Amino acid sequence: xxxxxxxxxxxxxxxxxxxxxxxxxxxxxxxxxxxxxxxxxxxxxxxxxxxxxxxxxxxxxxxxxxxxxxxxxxxxxxxxxxxxxxxxxxxxxxxxxxxxxxxxxxxxxxxxxxxxxxxxxxxxxxxxxxxxxxxxxxxxxxxxxxxxxxxxxxxxxxxxxxxxxxxxxxxxxxxxxxxxxxxxxxxxxxxxxxxxxxxxxxxxxxxxxxxxxxxxxxxxxxxxxxxxxxxxx
Length: 233
Hints:
Layout: H1 8-17, E1 20-25, H2 38-51, H3 81-97, E2 102-107, H4 115-125, E3 130-135, H5 140-149, E4 176-177, H6 182-186, H7 190-197, E5 204-205, H8 210-229
Parallel strand pairs: 1-2, 2-3
Antiparallel strand pairs: 4-5
Helix pairs in contact: 2-8, 3-4, 5-8
């Protein structure tokens, strides 16, 4: 259930029935020929698709994240880590005040992952609360399914090219992006990173069939649903 389609009284009742809630985490950053909001779109959709059969509330996606490495690409917006942690603390406290004690962060952007260190610190002051960070695209089942289709897959490649991340009227190159020098890239400033990456695809083809992508999506949804239901302390 989408929190955007609920009122406060419904949230109060829901928290009394089930203390789990979901927050998708995204980012606004370059994704080659795909939407700048790809990470936010995917995180919110996979969270909603996974949570719907469980009747768990999904809060609106936190669309902006930490992506300083792509700062040289127009349209990329990166929050400082101090800003992101401050926002996350306020959000966790809001969930807690609402009665939620088990919180799942469905993350769509690798650069956001360091926030789990803060979440662990926060749980130290809220010992009856539990927070999970689920990097949905990095789950072992999803990654195994991706590699079974094509192991050459990464940021802004076919692996993120779903019907809901494509842009109308934007054609994909009919080629495969070769690997880049990862060590050089890691040591580079944002302008140099753009020079190394070019269009922004990290590796591999730009597009695969919808049948393949929808099958992969279902794996991601099921793995995300498992993160919402299993292994709570």
